[in-house]
Write a structure and sequence with these properties.
Layout lengths: L8 E6 L6 H10 L3 E4 H8 L7 H8 L12 H10 L1 H24 L6 E5 L15 E6 L2 H12 L3 H10 L3 H6 L3 E4 L5 H18 L5
Parallel strand pairs: 1-3, 1-4, 2-3, 4-5
Bound molecules: adenosine-5'-triphosphate.
Adenosine-5'-triphosphate binds next to helix 1, helix 6 and helix 9.
């Protein structure tokens, strides 16, 4: 009978907005990691007909629903930033659903050497810390975050700053890190090289014990 593969190493991948998480996740996937993207799961839950939509409509009313039935993310973001109670209600609806879906997707990676949970708010919502063996933080300066998001998404500087301020500080995030990729002052090719070195170091760790 063939031996069962060792359990995958579970990595929590996090970093501030625009730090380079998705770029890192893609490189890790090219090495054979299964990437569970919690942002993509949240988008699916809130698209037209998405599983979270009835509860969101009930909690926040029609003003956060687009004509096609999906969540008006900009409207919802404004509400959540302006009012902490709204943010908590939103989280109370979405987080358990995201957790369930994340677990389901992670099961598909049972034979992968590494499962990467891409969780922008991993440090903020502490519960993820218990589910992973290691935390990988992608780190860069606030100026770099702003420049990237303005260039990539056309946001205003103030809009990016508001998100950065609502996220945990760079220092607090780094305190939780087992691995750090400094993604500042380097191009994407150099970032990829650093990811490759990190991947090798994980392989050298052997089977996870948790
Ligand atoms: P978000 O939090 O908004 O989802 P993210 O942390 O996943 O962002 P990415 O989408 O990977 O960040 O990167 C943000 C933008 O910056 C992308 O357009 C990406 O191509 C670019 N980028 C990332 N790293 C570098 C780099 N080292 N040099 C140049 N551009 C980069």
């Amino acid at each position: 009978m063939p031996l069962a593969p060792p359990p995958p190493l579970r990595i929590g991948l996090t970093g501030g907005i625009g730090s380079g998480k998705s770029t890192v996740a893609r490189r890790l996937a090219s090495h054979g990691a299964l990437v569970v993207d919690t942002d993509a799961i949240a988008r699916r839950l809130t698209q037209p007909g998405g599983a979270a939509m009835p509860a969101l409509r009930k909690a926040f009313g029609d003003s956060v629903i687009r004509p096609d039935g999906g969540l008006d993310r900009q409207q919802m973001r404004q509400l959540a930033f302006a009012d902490v109670l709204c943010r908590r209600r939103l989280e109370a609806i979405l987080h358990p659903m995201i957790s369930d879906e994340t677990q389901r997707e992670a099961l598909a990676g049972i034979a992968a050497p590494v499962v990467v949970f891409d969780v922008p708010l991993l440090v903020e919502s502490g519960r993820w810390l218990d589910l992973v063996h290691r935390v990988l933080v992608v780190d860069c300066s606030e100026d770099t975050q702003i420049a990237r998001v303005v260039r990539r998404s056309g946001w205003t500087v103030d809009a990016v700053r508001a998100v950065i301020e609502a996220q945990v500080s760079r220092e607090q995030r780094l305190l939780k890190a087992n691995d750090v990729l400094l993604n500042d002052g380097i191009d994407e090719a150099e970032l990829a090289r650093r990811v490759d070195v990190l991947w090798q170091s994980w392989k050298d760790l052997g089977a996870p014990t948790l």
